[in-house]
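Exercise 7. Given the components listed, write out the predicted structure of the assembled complex. Treat all entries as one system.
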Amino acid sequence: MKPIVKWLVVTVLVLEVGVVGAQEVIRIGANLEMTGAVAAYGQMIWEGVNLVREIVGDEVDGKKIELVLVDNKSDKVESANAATRLIDKEKVVAMLGPAISGSMLAVGPVCEEKQIPVISATATNPLVTQGKKFVFRACFLDPYQAAAAAQFAREDLKANTAAILSDIAQDYCVALGNFFKEEFTKRGGSIIVEQNCKTGDQDFSAQLTTIINANPDILYVPNYYTEIALITRQARDLGFEGIILSADGADAPELFSVGGDAVEGLYHTAIWDATKGLNEVGQKYIDLYKEKYGKDPNMFGALGADAYLILVNAIRQAGSLDPSRIRDFIEDTADLDVVTGKVTIENGDAIKPVVVRKVEGGKFQFVKTVVVE
Amino acid sequence: MTWTTFFQQLMNGVSVGSLYALLAIGYTLVYGILGLINFAHSDVFMLGTYFAFFMIGIFLLPWWISVLIGVGLCALVGVTIERVAYRPLRNAPRISALITAVGVSFFIENLGLVTVGARPKGFPRPELMKNVYFIAGARIQGVTFWVPLISIAVLLVLFYLVYRTKLGMAMRAVSKDMETTRLMGVNVDRVILYAFALGSALAGIGGVLWACKYPQINPLMGIFPGWKAFTAAVVGGIGNVVGAMIGGFIIGLAEIMIVAFFPNLTGYRDAFVFALLIIFLLVKPSGIMGETLKEKV
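Answer.
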């Protein structure tokens, strides 16, 4: 055993020396959920970040980017601790933040205080970036998605009247429903009937009968996949012939197994389309992911890659390792090509094209991207 | 609201109500004989859909045979539950049996979550249930058409069984006085086993028909239909089979009509049903068809 231990020590020393002795490195923290309740999210993001490094390389102006991963155990307190450790001990200049909003809300104040920019791939709660200078995210928010849906309904589907059947037990659904209504009305359409349901409901016949009686051009169902499948099914059985439009909650295989042929023709807004890259880096990412893992890439990994690309771009633009300067260039991100399309950062939030897809032949087919005007 | 719309809503209500009715009969049957509310009933209902689902999906059996096997397996599960969980508590206080029933229910639900997972599965439906019929301008799905007919057929079979066979006579005897029936040389435990087999088979049929209407199955799917069917049984007069059917239709129609006429109250749909349960328990605990309860000695 002893010689092995000796060798290990020597190897570690050599590695240490190697790192210290090499050219200047840029240290970026990764504060991710590698274990715990939502470990899948953190792991997918980590996977995406590393994959995109294989595509765009890991250097900025000849300086090597070193990622320092700390597991936040899917826990709020651990996330805040991990942030402190990354900043004080590991001396990172920027940080990839946790996947979920709760943890990101705990990390935000730490980064604000220490003035280190942090960017989350997927935290969608509006509060995450509100009133903060150093906190960013790489995904768009529910209001933006609903506005895109309304614009698509008005401009592309030429709908004049719409009905909304939303789930009053979910903040997500209520928000989408309200913002859709606002935008659709603003664009000259009218919401002729609004109906509600509750998570877990299986029977929607009463609501749908009322909706069909009002005969709208389009039915907006910003719910989750099971409800969308059951609603679509019952709407068709009850004779609804208009267009049904839903949001990113539709993206699950259960939509097809429960909805069957009834979901044919259903439109939905999505964060991205894993079958078709919108630009070069997107397509490369999809190809490489499939080659490496033998399956379709997921949204978490793609948004993780986006967050990384936004950071790297800002560091390159800043031309220095001053965190405040990097922060300014993150905020200035405009029309940057990332994995899920072109991204612009405004007030800490990402603005990027919303993908619209349609169900055809039991599969999602890309229709177009929508940028809210 | 136009006449056609109203008629359509009426049909929607009948459609949901007949499913509750079928399920309520199972509750009432066991209660009538044992005085026990079998909370595991709604989980046997869930198991029925999964049994049929796996028979179709894995063994690739035709739909009807799968359903029959599913219903048979449900009867077997019912018998097992009674043998393992309820029989040892036959002479224990009622509250013990009640708590055991809740425990069995949780056990089956969680067993389902662990073994088949929480993600819903799509249930295959035969053409017969998918067809849409037009009656007076209302669109009526095959399943809406068949469920009430099946419920009535089940009711007739049940009446024949209870009033025309020896087994039925024994069941009625047990429900009146278990000890005396035992003294008369009737194998009480066996009679109760048959009652459970019957009730659980009904749950299985109800489950499959439910899945035909709402083709999404998951291990917790039985909970709400179960509670509502139980409410239907109480409203109709628990222990009374005809009452259970009437109760089922009342609950189904009430649920649909509250959403149809008061869209703003949609969120209170379930609350409304359970408010009805409380009102009935307070005002007329014996239900619509129930006899005034004479406390058993």
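Discussion: Residues 233 and 244 of chain B are 4 Å apart (CA to CA). Chain B touches chain A through 31 residues (CB under 8 Å).
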